TrEMBL record:
Record's protein name: Sterol-4-alpha-carboxylate 3-dehydrogenase, decarboxylating
Membrane protein topology class: Single-pass membrane protein
Gene Ontology terms: cellular component: endoplasmic reticulum membrane; lipid droplet
Pathway(s) this gene product operates in, as recorded in its UniProt entry: Steroid biosynthesis; zymosterol biosynthesis; zymosterol from lanosterol: step 4/6
Main subcellular location of this protein, as a coarse class: endoplasmic reticulum
Compartments in which it is found: Endoplasmic reticulum membrane; Lipid droplet
Gene Ontology BP annotations: cholesterol biosynthetic process
Keywords: Acetylation, Cholesterol biosynthesis, Cholesterol metabolism, Endoplasmic reticulum, Lipid biosynthesis, Lipid droplet, Lipid metabolism, Membrane, NAD, Oxidoreductase, Steroid biosynthesis, Steroid metabolism, Sterol biosynthesis, Sterol metabolism, Transmembrane, Transmembrane helix
Class in the EC hierarchy, top level: oxidoreductase
Organism (species): Triplophysa tibetana
EC numbers, comma separated: 1.1.1.170
GO terms assigned for molecular function: 3-beta-hydroxysteroid dehydrogenase [NAD(P)+]/C4-decarboxylase activity
Assembly and interaction partners: Homodimer.
Amino acid sequence: MATRIRPSNKRCAVIGGSGFLGRHLVERLVDRGYAVAVFDIRQSYELPGVTFYQGDLCDKHALLVALKDVSIVFHCASPAPASDDRALFQRVNIDGTRTVIQACHEAGVQKLVLTSSASVVFEGTDIKNAKEDLPYAKRPIDYYTETKIQQEKMVLEACSKENDFLTVAIRPHGIFGPRDPQLVPILVDAARRGKMKFIIGDGCNLVDFTYVENVVHGHILAAERLKTDSPLCAQAYHITNDEPVRFWDFMSQILVGLGYSAPRYHLPYMLVYGIALLLWLMAFIMRPLVQIKPTFTPMRVALAGTHHYYSCARAKQDMGYQPVVPLKEAIARTVESYPHLRKGA
Ligand SMILES: NC(=O)C1=CN([C@@H]2O[C@H](COP(=O)(O)OP(=O)(O)OC[C@H]3O[C@@H](n4cnc5c(N)ncnc54)[C@H](O)[C@@H]3O)[C@@H](O)[C@H]2O)C=CC1
Ligand SMILES: CC(C)=CCC[C@@H](C)[C@H]1CC[C@H]2C3=C(CC[C@]12C)[C@@]1(C)CCC(=O)C[C@@H]1CC3
């Protein structure tokens, strides 16, 4: 029988614990009796049982203070994909993750759980029910993804049974839920500016949107099942809701739930992609003179108009993963949690 960690004896750290996913993870860990250290460049809340350490993960000395007596580290810090800042992604996701690994070694941490991303294999074209053995994208869709690939490789390569340091990577996709600063706010902003009338393509493309509590569940299972003799060592796992949904149906359900109209008019995918590419090029050329942030980036159009959904069979098999909140319930909870974004609010 598999041995179970006794949470009350365990101290873990969540790097990026002030963020959307990180905070949900911290709350669940506290519920399960873990003592949690949060390490983040900002502190966004307070919670009994949680100690906050404010600092940059590129600073090993600051990290070492937070990792004292910690046996499990969850690394879910990253600059936001929308920042599109190559140097920042390189510094935090690559150099910073190397520093996290070094700090883990020096502090005697036994397990490192990385929040990677399913997009490490996405090149902007259809992905249907992909397993984890799909090769990394040769042409990643943006700098963020480029650095997530290198980050994942680095963490998995650091796994060493001899040195009693085990690592695993979780690849979520399209995380949503209460307090998410990205998905729902971007969507509502686009609706309020009259930009959510159109469906890109035929509207049939299937995508994984994953409720944050399911992603948290996957992380905690991974940490607790990661053992020297388990198949999880140095592996990556897709964690999804296991209910791929039409991208535009999902968007429509959120919009209608918040009182906005669902998109109705179809536009050809290639036309919109071409326009987005042109706008991106213009913004790039004019960068030295003026900073423009177009809503329609080629990356967003690709996300909105292609299939991208992933199999979580490996997580089911190796760690007994099953989503704990089904999609319908997850959408209802999410809509409920944004009263301030309702139409007319
Ligand atoms: N939101 C999504 O749909 C998906 C997210 N992910 C990954 O999940 C993780 C968490 O994402 P979210 O919670 O959505 O992002 P978030 O932006 O809400 O949280 C990231 C946290 O990292 C912190 N951080 C950033 N740079 C830091 C640094 N140099 N030192 C210390 N802390 C730093 C931020 O202050 C923030 O609190 C990220 O690694 C992201 O790549 C993966 C797939 C999908
Ligand atoms: C599944 C997955 C990886 C989701 C990531 C979340 C965001 C990338 C999406 C959240 C809101 C989406 C959105 C668009 C693209 C993708 C998102 C930013 C559009 C810009 C697509 C073109 C439109 O018609 C407007 C959309 C607004 C919302």
